[in-house]
Amino acid sequence: MRLKLSSLLVIIFLCFFAVSCDSSSVDGGPGTPLKVYVHGNIAPYDTLSDAVSDIENIDWQEDSKKADAIRTAFAIEQVISHLKMSEIDISFGKPESDNDIYAIYLNYFEPKEDVINEADRQSYSIISDDVSLNISAKSSIGLLYGTFRYLEHLGVSWYDPEVITFPEHLELRKVWETTEYPKSLSRGFWLYNQTPLSDEYLLWMARNRLNLAGHSEGNYAKMLGFKRWGGGHHIIQEVFSEDGLFEKHPDWFAYNGGVYRQIPKSGTYFNPAFGKQEVADFFAESMLKRLTLGDLADHDIVNVWPADSRQDLFDQSELALSIGNESDNLMLFYQRVAEKFQRAYESGELNRQVTLAGISYFNTWKAPINGFSYSFAKNSYIHLFYLNERTWSSPLYEDLEVHESNRRITENLSSWSAIQGVEFGTVDYYNYSSFSAVGLSDHLNFQETYDSLGSINDGLVAYMHPLKTNPGPRRLTNQLISKLTWQDTGEVNSLTISERYFNDRYGSYSDEWQAFYKTYSDAIDNAKEMFAEDSLTYHLFKGIFWGEPWTDNDINIIHQFRTGGLQSIPVLFQNRNLLERFRGLDESVDMLNDIVFRSERLISQVDDLNIKNNMSHDLIWFKATYARYLLIYYISQFVELKIEGRDNDFLISKIQTEIDFLDTVSVTDDTLSPVNQRAFIVFCRKLIE
């Protein structure tokens, strides 16, 4: 069973840690009691091992009593294993005397009301003094989150799945009281691969109180509180490309350009006629088969995304135009489908409530013009804003007069937030194909942006494509998401999170390394302008991407991107410009070169192997990002000389050197999703052929 394998790995790791760790630096600290007891209700099981070993043998939804007992036993095991690593004498059971004993109690109390809301279900309270600690919750998942929060309060951190970081001393006898609940109900990452995450990765996320990770399946994931999240653009295409469907019902498809548009089985497609009741009914019936017995049978949240780009891919029939804009039509479709899902759940056809997740992406960023109120059942629908066009030069809501991209986003968000009856969430783009080898963390602005979004983040907060092995600076982003998405007593903010992160990982060098992080983050705050929508990259590669020839004006455009400052940038294929203030490419190259030089020099002076290793993980990112910026710097010169008809062969070897490095460096292709982060290498090679 997966759990037994996972438990074995944990035991092996704990033994290794106990042997390799200096016992004088990790202990119970002054005033540590001679004996610690942990107790919680694990009935009907007699022992912790009996409970935890039964995880794969029960029906997690039907046998809730055993499921709660297993989760409670697992929480108790987590407390015991972590404190034992600090050489504390701890065991399961109730204390028999008060002589130098410390007691930890884990209890959940099911509320009298029939239905508990999701925020209460995940919440917990912790009260401790010098003789005991009580963790209480309204559900066993709240109890588990409270357990991890308690360990975190003691000074334990989990920055990577395979590493547990301890403070010098664990002080149990702390007087502390807190009640905490999630500000964002779902927190984590968007993944679209079909390979389930490992138990170790899921446990790392749960320890950080994250609960959303794509294809997290099985009872182990359920025990840790995960919601399985899937779907995407392919869902609609799969349903409406069914053989013979277009011939039978051509009016179910988009009327665009004077004809009905059949949906192919792959590639770009026009959307179905979202405004038709029959279209929603057909789609819902097809999806219910998959949600009950098919490939989506274990999913809790399903993304249903239309084809959406800067092209017009929506129905323009008289019916569609009478309903409103693209978002009006799409929201009507979503409401009809969500109603079908909800009725199936209430009738027992679906064994769980499934949340349909809609999207704002390109054309669908525009709020509905006729729909000001919707009647979605609670938890049946969530509308997600994918922030694919934001600039990173400042917090999302700041300096909007010089950040047109962010101004458009915030204006649209304001219009959407006025709509009644819809739950919202956001998905950010720290890591997708355009940002390969660029370690965007947004740690300087994360809290300000998160707080400014307010209720827009209530339902869900996630980012695209977490990394497999070396998150680099995004380790700090993971900490910010895991902690700032919870409402606590006020002791947690971006400054305290960052201070602890740098102290834990870099010790006496924390101030210097934090300064490197800041400079690095500043240097790449123009990542959108360099690599993503309407970027320098788009202009340099427009011949390869779209067959568009360069013109003399492209030299001026290249200079705009290299110089930076406040610039009016032409938007390709649209008769408009985009006003943005950003850091110029040349300045970024200089800053990144300086970071690589100074961080390498500092690492050479560090004796502590653990700190040196942590720094080296970051240095790989510093070097890769420098290479990515240097590559586009050389290509800018290459293209400019080519337009002018001057010799540019001397740049080919420089370009090739950076390509070769990026082709082999580990961080170029290190995502858990199968997103293609090597495409830019292919394009660069093609450019210099």
Report on this model:
Keywords: Hydrolase, Signal. It comes from Shewanella colwelliana. InterPro entries: Hex-like_dom2. The chain folds into 3 domains: 2-189, 2-Layer Sandwich (Chitobiase, domain 2); 194-474, Alpha-Beta Barrel (TIM Barrel); 515-687, no CATH class. The protein contains 25 helices and 21 strands. Mean pLDDT is 91; it is low at 1-27.
Features:
alpha/beta; TIM Barrel; eight-stranded parallel sheet; seven-stranded mixed sheet; 25 helices; 43% helix; globular; hydrolase activity; Hex-like_dom2; signal; hydrolase
Number of individual domains: 3
> What is CATH's topology name of the largest domain?
TIM Barrel
Overall pLDDT confidence? 91
CATH class of the largest domain: Alpha Beta
Instruction: Name the structural class.
Output: alpha/beta
Sequence stretches where pLDDT stays below 50 over 5 or more residues:
1-27
